[in-house]
Structures
1.
Amino acid sequence: MNPSIIVQKVNKSFGKKPVLNEVNLTIGKGQLYGLIGPSGAGKTTLVKMIVGMEKANSGTIHVLDEKMPNLAILQEIGYMAQSNALYLELTGEENLKFFASLFKLNKDEQRTRIAYASNLVNLTADLKKRVAAYSGGMKRRLSLAIALIQDPQLLILDEPTVGIDPELKLSIWNELLRLKNDEGKTIIVTTHVMDEAERCDMVAMVRDGAILASGTPDELKDLYHVGSLDEVFLKAGVKQHENLGVN
Amino acid sequence: MRISALIKRITLQLLRDKRTLGLMFVAPLLILTLMYFLFNGNTVDPKLGVVGIDEQLVKGLEKTDIQVIEYEKASSDTVIDKDLDGLLEADSGNMILTLKNDDTSKAKALQMKVNQVAAAQVQKKLIQQSPAAGGMATKQIDTKYVYGNKDTVFFDVLSPILVGYFVFFFVFIISGIGLLRERTTGTLDRLMSTPIRRWEIVTAYLTGYGIFAIVQTVIVVIYAINVLDIVLAGSIFDVILINLLLALVALALGILLSSFAASEFQMIQFIPVVVIPQVFFAGIFPLDGMADWLQAVAKIMPMYYAGDALKAVMYKGMGLGEISGDIIALAVFAVIFIALNIVALKKYRTL
């Protein structure tokens, strides 16, 4: 089975500032893949490039066997940005409907998908309210529901659980695992919360625009001879700084 | 269809935002009304004292809304004592007009009126005496009006331009900030992660805001003509057509410039740079007197063409055929700005 995403030798800089440096990444179909790293490491830029919203300076990205950017493939990608990106004047349902029509779902599909997605994030009762009246957590949940609206094969979630209470966070993670296990979806999650990284099949450590290490959480712990991903993260960071010092 | 989904969303958003709607629909009417009263303000009839003026002339003066008061004898002191605006005396065949001139514009207006009435009378007399001489007299005292009539006020000349300018201004601001908000809240990014094409976004924005621009244009034009009684010599449909084209230009320009603004605050900063200068070249100030380079600048201002076209239709009563050059110029502006918009969105996605 072909991998869902192949990132090859990708470089990206904004002006003179390099953001990504020779990034290689392969994500298999049906994997829950975590990109972990501090803020400003380049995680968001990397996922945006996978979606096709940013162009690489060099290197190639393939998603579902198609070279990105590719409009048709976007139909199969559910993307949730770091910012909530919602229309505050509209109700939750209107937001969902709008995005559903962008993906060309017909009326029946729209109804079932909106019911499914809003139920998943516990917003069914609040669908008729304007988003301006939503709490921070509700906006985050609606944003997640939008990412799921067209039933995409591939989910790319940029820090999906920021500002969500622990109980809901758990239920979202359980749902992500269910989507992966039962429906075979490929999911990319960026996070800087290590206990979330522990639940991923594979993790890649992103720091200063480069992938320092990747593997299963256990492999990474073995690699650095430590007991937790937190420590892996710290050690990887120190090691990189040492390398930079030598260079 | 994606475009219609986007149009529907934009419409809903605007309908929910009552204040912005108010700004778009009511603010232009408010300003127009204010300007109307400002420019038609000094309609207080001037008071003119007369001494030894023949009855016919007095009647003529009274017809032009001059309050004429006859005196046996008067001097410049009378003007001050009786609070007159002027004094007209007949002195052995010649007439002397003494103006109080405490308000120069008022004095000038009065002077003009008196001259006109006197000239008309002289002309009439001449024609009565010898029709041949009448032709000569008209050459010397020119009281003919090419456009407008004796009731024409400055506002009538100005208003066609103002109608267009307000449409331009408010459409520019609201559409520009509309797309800008989409950028700053991240929803544009999110749109770009769906299979929508760049031209579909531009089309939807133009249509969505275009609907409101049409409503605004129609309201402003109808209000100006029916309530404020602005002169409309030509066809109202031509006026609306010109304004719609102008609104389209403003719409495309607003959306385009919003790509160069990082915040609403920065969008507002385009007003003095882009919007205000338009009014200088819209025909309120005569272009012929401007320096050559300024005249060249005027040619790249959409309002220059719109102002010219509106003045031609509303004031001079011309038809579409005579203003086709302006119409084409506006259409070219719109096409250029729309194309640039599609290019500017490349910043977000190349497809």
2.
Amino acid sequence: MLKALFSERLMPLVILVVLVPLVAFAQGSDADVASRLEALTLRLEALDRESGAIRAEIDALRSLVAGAASVPADDLTQIEGALPAATEDLTKIDAVPAPAASDGSLAGVDVIENAPSAAVSKIFNPDIAIIGNVVAHAGGDNPEERDAIALQESELSLEAAVDPYAKAKFFIGYSDEEVAVEEGYIQFVALPWDLSAKVGKMKASFGKFNPTHFHTWSTTDAPLVNATFFGEEGLADSGVSVSKLIPAGAFLVEATAEAFRGSVEGVFEPGRSSDLFYDARLRAYRDLTENSNIDVGASFATGTLPETGGSSRFTGIDVSYRWKPLSRAIYRSFLARGELIVNDRDGGPDSAVGYYASADYQFARRWLAGARIDGVDRPDDPSITDRGQSLMLTFRPSEFSLIRGQYRRTDYGDGFEADEFLLQFQFGIGAHGAHPF
Amino acid sequence: MKRTLVLALALVAGSVAQAEPLNVVTTTSDLASIAREVGGDRVAVESIARGYQDPHFVEAKPSFLLQLRKAELLAVVGLELEIGWLPPLIEQSRNSEVRPGTDGYLDLSAGVEILDRPSAKVDRSMGDIHASGNPHYWLEPGNAVRIAIQFRDRFAKLRPAEAPYFTARLNEFKVRANDANKRWTEALAPYKGAKIVTYHRSWSNFARRYGLDVVDFVEPKPGVPPSPSHLFELVQSMKEQKVKVILVEPYFDLKTPNSVAQKTGAKVIVMYPSVGGAPGLDDYFKLFDRNVSALAEGLR
């Protein structure tokens, strides 16, 4: 069909090309001939252009036909006109658009410039995600009043690049009672010497549990040691954090040093504005096999006590062992973790010691079982020790939601005993966050 | 003869300015394989994910930071395939040379043929859907060449003195890919139009290239494990349409596909979506040789 069109439309042109000189010569009169010759030359040129346009149209149609066929073009060498290596102008490598397949036989094959997706107009908006967290509670003999069911603290996160040098992240916690900035900081990612720095309000890099957000936990609650030593919100404050990566053979070492304003409710309270609280952490990671790895860390934090004005020091060690067989990664994984924290206070009695040890095993694609034991001496009276044991079962319908049951038994050092059942519903909408590690 | 000449020429051109090899990190082993084809000994390529691993669910292990912190080029599949694990790695690597938007970051989805682009508004009720199209585009030789071209362009930009070498290797790769593709096309030609079922939506580009008809998936929606009701429907529709094979990626459990196969008389074929998915599948050509012959065998 195309061929027929081609020859039909070009035939007059061919005839004209042949006839024009003959007709011109037959006329004979000089000036007349000259002007007519010129006119005819112009006409011929116009026709020539027209035939070029027709040819281009045919090529375009051919490529459309080729594109509509279900099988892509066969000759892969033609995907881009192969440039002879020796004559290639290096300066033009990026400037020159790839030449189109001009012979038509392999139309429509080249690097495809994919247009950015429709979301491009929103590209400068931060990535937004909201994680809801509903916890139902049953069981009693509990020193604290608890709701039967409540939308507990949920989290709104906003994240975007500030400029070529920094990212900003905000995590806003909200519950029935309050809305608070859990974290909000700028992170400088383009520093030399493997350094990274954060400025703003953030969770202190103390141990493994403290820096995490609730939606990455494998439990509905924080271990007793973290809740008792660092309070509901954890060790978080306004300050500066600098960390450095130090490759050391098979180990990856990360050293972090932080200085904070010094005010953490119930934990640190500055008498003067120069009473900062400091935090330091050294962590070493290594792969044991491609399926397993170990992560060990030591942390230290010191600040001013709320009432006495003396200093309070926390020293912690932590160990994590992870196993995840690469070829079955979506079905099986295991994580064992332990953390021990000691609190010393000026003028206080003995040190208070707290710990937790937990194990979580993923036994099916969407199922996870876990256990945790934890305990802590009360810092103001270390002779009183609270102890807890928990069993967890988690079902994750998808990456974006989970339902978790936790049975928790707590022996409070002052005589209370509590057997509780917690049921958690957690769900996230918005930007796809990173998988927890 | 022609090949040796081109290589010799490239060698001469290259030896003029022999620099340190370009440090390239790719997210997947397939990109690594194609990068090696184009880069030869002028690039040192490492892949983060292994071929037998589901590339959606790689863990952001700190050991990858060791690779990333010294990388001069990070090549990614894109289309949100790596969204769950790559952003924190880039951030923690402290390597500002490989951040998105720099010359050290190459998203290969920008220049390839993308299928399964959702035409309507998407949300997560559709499963773990990729809003910009199917990220498994590398499983098609035409796209392999498009990936190679993009590698050549970027390598040449980062190492201008080596550009002729990369171009010579690219052209050689095109010829080899073209020859190999003729072979694969021939091997699958008798099964044109064959109806197949796949576990995940990994084989759209592959199926289009070789004229196979993917009629259904073992997963009801991307990333969603099969439910009993979906499997019941799947068995019915496979029987009606006389589907003979179920293609399963090696990182999925075979139990469900096997039971579907048993009920329908179809055959389960483990198809490797990535280089290194099994011992011996060391490069892109071996990967396709193996997959094409296993598929032809299964469809016979």
3.
Amino acid sequence: MNALERHRKLTAIWASEPGWRGWFSTVNHTDLGRMFLVTAFFFFIIGGLLAMLIRAQLATPQSAFAGPEIYNQIFTMHGTIMMFLFAIPTFEGLAIYLLPKLLGTRDLAFPRLTAYGFWCYVFGGTMLLVAMVLGIAPDGGWFMYPPLSGPLYSPGINTDFWLIGITFVEISAIAAAVEITVSILKYRAPGMSLDKMPIFAWYALITALMILTGFPPLILGSILLEVERAFGLPFFQAELGGDSLLWQHLFWLFGHPEVYIIFLPAAGVISTVLPVMCRTTLLGYGWIVAAAVSLAFLSFGLWVHHMFTTGIPHMGLAFFSAASTLVAVPTGVQIFAWIGTIWKGRPELRLPMLHILGFFATFVIGGLTGVMVAVVPFDWQAHDTAFITAHLHYVLFGGFVFPIFAGVYYWLPHFTGRRRFFHLGELAFALVFIGFHVTFLAMHWVGLLGQRRRIPTYAPEDGWTAINLISSVGSFVLAIGIGMILIDVILHALTAARGRRNPWRAGTLEWAMITPPPAYNLASLPHVTSREPLTQEPDLAVRLARGEGYLATPRHGWRETLTVDVASGRPDMHVLYPTNTLLPIIMSAVTGVFFLSLLLKFYWTVPLAVAGVAYLAWRWVWVLGRKEDLDALPMGHGITLLNAAMTDHSPGWWGTVFLLTANATFFGSLLFGFAFLWTVAPGWPPPAWFVASPVELGFGILGAALGCFAIGHAIVVNRRNGSPLPGLVLTLAGALAVAVACAAMMARTPSPEAHAYGATLFVLGSYGLFHAVLGALMASFLIARVLQGFTSPMRRAEFTIVGLWVGYLSVVGTLVLLAGHLPGLAS
Amino acid sequence: MTDLIRILIAPLVWLAAFSAIYGLHGLICGHGIEGAALGLPMQRLLLIMAYIVAVLLQATLLAALYHPRLASTSNFVSFVSHATGWTGLVATGWSLLPVVMTSYCT
């Protein structure tokens, strides 16, 4: 088979469907990565326009441009859009587009999940935009502090749009994070051991793990606040045993890592692009990996530095102040590694490099003001002033937008297959750089003069007029610069001449394919022996196109790839992907019905939507798998591999591990909230304690233990060619026993509306019940699969996946029941 | 997976220790623990003991990461895990140092 025939056959297998239907049914990562990026930049424009409105309002004192109510919506939506609908999805889009190409494989681990996440993002973001158009957008600030955002002070639907819309969008982030983590760990070219991974993959891996552990506290906080608003369970009302500080803890447990979730992928772009621009290799690869890991962890120890003015005892403040200063060290390691890379190379001042230099200047200033506000006495002075707004923009614009622009210009020839012709970009960069610094240096200044953040106007005698005017003029220069970048990119995409492959002479694998990239990425998969395969083997692209790599011959119309051992990069499984389907968009639409029903209080459609999602999830998994065993198949280069369905640790098992990591963080946050309210909140002890029942507790714990034991038994028996059905039936019975015990606990909980104690127990019980029902559904699914012949001693992957879920259910079910019953038994 | 754990374990233990001691501080202040021992108020003593345990744990972990039987066979993983091991130890020592220096519960 020659290269052209191979290209045609692979394209027929991997391409999305023709016409409009293809937009909705595609599961291809290149399509979805592009769709993510275009949608994210659409939201960036909207968020930018809102920023212009803010600066128009503040340009002059006593401005009548917008009233306070509208102004509140404008700044809330600006922050919300930029953080949730632009920054995170841009990372997701870039990672989804790039990772399989950088890693030398054909797609991400779970293509349908990519599509589901994208459509959740689109629908959730649209909900927020519709609210804005209707004039009922969220207006409590992007961090939505109660009691301001609680039912007493924000009775309208505005806050609900934020809580529900953002939770909907966060499904997308969690889905992408699971997808990215498993893809980086398992879906790499053979030979690509951990030390040979492209540096962007390391950053993406760390970021994805941070999303999995950083987002659940916010999802929990949003659920609790929405439940308080909708049903009156008082988690954040001090007079009923709640505490508004709980929200701040949950929010900033997410919110501070979020800053690094935004920065780290951008740092990945810098670490990828900078060496190419300097015609050298990255200095201190190992140090950078260690610094990024350290930064990720340390960032979870900083959340209280957003709460220095809330009256927390000095020792608590000192913990977080110390951790906040410490985080500068790994950041500094990265900065010095980049400076060293410039030093040892021959920098070329091409457009991506200009943006990188813009990043250096801006981010270092933002980092230094960050160290200033990490010092408690300074923070007490600057808290909630425009100084903080300026600091966060230096960090986020400097640490994300400049690197992303560098990345956009660097990978633009890859996205389009064209070479730059119009050179608006250089002028645009100058305007962006000057406009940004004029805007936000001035904002530091006016903040130090005492201007509070988020004020709708000010008086002439405050002495802030000239500075605000300068800041507003700067912001319009910045906006013109960004507009010119967009025009430059659009002109490039539509009109520029075809370019040659790898115009930057980079060494990473994404340039080893034709551009724009084909749906299958690489005609055959390389064997990687270096961190920069193209530098080591300049003719690699041609050899891969000729079919000299793995999986060079398309067969049976399969979308196939292989996975590798995490550490060594040794091939270990053969994977068959699902093909194009409308299932993800339908499932996200039904998920949207669930959220919309909650938002509009159409509670009768909520169970219908839940049932719909459960049915579609069942179908999602059911269409996978086969009724006959597959022999080990040849992959090329003399290697044969078993299909993933015939292993214990299939991609689904890996995905489950990381999804459960996020889930466990959610549950841990819930337990933290319970302990926090119990320990810190005023209004405790509650008027009535839950009356413990040894029978219910024992029944539930017995069920949890039975489920855990029975699924383990079923796994072993199936492997030994016995019937797993008895074990699975017992697993089902165990899950149902946990469900009954949790439901009984919920039914007997002291009035959840009367005190936060009852409210928290009710939510704990709901969590246990939900997982018990889920466990029962999974056990039933597996029983059905066994009966239909989808499993065998060889085809056993589904057993271990269900085993993970049931094991998790056993642990959380037991903890939920103990949390409810133990205090009663002890008293 | 084992190599990933080698890289992540020390910072993870720091995070757990940091959260646990912050939680212990909250419990001590929330429940008004009284008394004294070894010439120190009980609150301070408990916090210092927890601090010492955390530092010792990190030091043990670091020693384990250097031990030939437990170290990775990959030079790269060894290097990164040593670096993150030192990060865990320094972070524990520095970020929890306030237990011996600042006032508690005020």
4.
Amino acid sequence: MTSTTTTVWSPAPVAHPRQRTVSLLRAEWTKMRTVRSTMWTLVAMTIITVGISMIAGSTIANRWNTFSVIQRLTFDPTRVSLRGLLFSQLIIGVLGVLVMSAEYGTGTIRATLAAVPRRPRVLAAKAAVFFAVAVVAGEVLAFSGFLVGQALLVSPAPHAVLSQPNVLRAVAGGGLVVAVLGLFALGLATIIRHSAGAITAYVGVLLVAPIILQSLPSSIGQPILKFMPFTISDTMTSVVSNGNDAFSPWVGLLVLAGYAIAALVIGGWLLNRRDA
Amino acid sequence: MIDVRGVTKRFKDTVAVDSLSFEVPTGVVTGFLGPNGSGKSTTMRIIMGLDHADSGEAVINGVPYHQLAQPLREVGALLEAKAIHPGRTAFNHLWYLAQTNDIARRRVSEVIELVGLTQVAHKRVGKFSLGMGQRLGIAAALLGDPGTLLFDEPINGLDPEGILWVRNLLKGLAAEGRTVFVSSHLMSEMALTADHLVVIGRGRLISTGSVSDFITTNANQYVRVRTPRTDELAGLLVAQGARVQREDDGSLAVSDLSAEQIGVTCGNAGIFLYELSPQSASLEEAFMEMTRESVDYHGHRVDEDVATSTSGK
């Protein structure tokens, strides 16, 4: 052990270049891949999402003969095979929350902000890296869920192929919904700063709010219901219309993106304002 | 150089830092001394741009922290030991920090070696002891080879060998011409490590200056005198402008007069002396005396508490 640094520091001031965006992105990627929770969350997400699609596909194939004429006519094999994405949405939300709240929970945020004092840049880099991971995860799971689900929808049940109208949109769009919702969760965590609180808020918006809205008189509940991520996701992943009042798939995705951006902007403003 | 200019910070009803101004010079170790809760950590967080001051500002080499282009290459800090994700390894914690400031990967291994953590570099931080956490925090501070260093209570949790190591490290860094600012609530530790002192209490500046000045100004010095003719000598010394206090054991505590002057006085008056010994109170006592008024949390003596409770307050 030596008592001083090995390099001799020269007191002459050096003009350092400004911190580069690519450096911040690399650092956020290092942070994300060097904790175990990231890997385990993605593994859990894969098992549950593909598993649910498998169960949904095989169950319907077995019961097809008991379906009524109406059920057969409105059957949407694409939507059935993407049912598992609801769980992807839940789990990506947990990951999005943890990526931010773990910094607060462990105190790492102070090391991070000392290294990058321009705080909105930290949030932007973190959101960008997380979104890239979430898009890849969402798309991989949407496509694998779809393909596995269709493979199990054996005759006499009909199955879908990607070349049919709107099927590719439903699958690819379903993956994007997962990624955008994850980003929304990251924004919530930036505002709330506690894992449990942020996850509760996210699950509240994703699952609890639609249940409450459905129990209200439809004149009150229905107009709000179309803004719910649950409804928007369902429209995106459906090929056969279910006749509900809803945004068109891409407009719905823009609404979700609006939630994510709003949460991130408010979170970024608070991050800048609050003491770390 | 760190320059704190009229910084005030409030948390709800309490004023943590109250119009605090001081300078931390280059090339020496500056001790930041104050009782627990006196605002030392808050002041350091304000210098680091982590907490926002309600008024005033803190600058490093004339620049506010958030304007530093590559902050880790200019300022390194140990603010809290173990404020690190427990699931990440020591190496990866330092590596992500290095990446933000374009610091080479080689430097990460170098600082790990420097603080003696090479054996555990790829172990998860959650398994580290408090002392190892401190060493990792010090490694993070040194990462960018910065000219300004802040350490908040760096010896907490360290064993005696570790304390000695930190002491030498701080002195070595200052000797290289860096600005070294280290907080502590232990005057005795600062007397050994620091050259310069900034003393605060309840968020206010109490004293600033060199350690040697602090000692001569604040260490209460007096001469202990024992003689069979106590009253007579006391009268003679008071006549020469000394302050004389009679102790319980019959000796005199004489201040404002040197031992030599007292000896001469006794000789001239033909008074026998049994004892003539200069005394100086410890620095710790001087520090406690100085900050007594400004300690937020202090233990009461039992008899004080009894007196207070029986008087019905």
